[in-house]
Specification:
The protein has 106 residues and is mainly α. Helices cover 62% and strands 0% of the residues. It has 6 helices and no strands. Helix 2 crosses helix 6 and helix 4 packs across helix 5. The protein is globular. The N and C termini lie far apart (30 Å).
Length: 106
C-alpha cells in the first residue's frame, strides 16, 4: 500500500511539473521516469543516491547531451558510466535531446 502511494505521489508530482514545459521537455520527463533515472538521480534529478551520482537538474542542455552521447558511445568510461551504459544504449539522439531539455529546465 505504501509503495502504491509513493508511485502515485511521484506520478502526481510529475504531472504538475509538466505544466508549461515544451513538448520536447515533456517527452524528456517521460523518458527520465520510464528509464528509471529517478532511482539514482532522484525525482527531477535533484537528489542523487550517493556522492558519486551527479545532480542533473539545471545543468546546461549541451553538456547533458554530450555526457549522454559520450556514455552511449563509450567515449566516457569513468565514474558511474558502467551502470549508465545499458540505460542509454537504446536512446535515440532525439531521446537524448529531450532528456537534456527536460533536465536543463528544472
Amino acid at each position: 500500500m505504501k509503495h502504491t502511494r509513493n508511485i502515485l505521489g511521484v506520478a502526481i508530482l510529475a504531472s504538475i511539473m509538466l505544466v508549461g514545459m515544451t513538448a520536447q521537455a515533456q517527452d524528456g520527463a517521460a523518458l527520465f521516469m520510464s528509464k528509471a533515472c529517478i532511482a539514482c538521480h532522484g525525482v527531477e534529478g535533484k537528489q542523487p543516491i550517493n556522492d558519486n551520482t551527479p545532480k542533473l537538474a539545471g545543468q546546461n542542455k549541451g553538456y547533458l547531451m554530450t555526457q549522454l552521447q559520450d556514455i552511449k558511445s563509450g567515449a566516457r568510461n569513468n565514474g558511474q558510466t558502467a551502470q549508465m551504459k545499458p540505460i542509454v544504449a537504446n536512446l535515440s539522439d532525439h531521446d537524448i535531446e529531450a532528456i537534456a531539455e527536460y533536465l536543463s529546465l528544472l
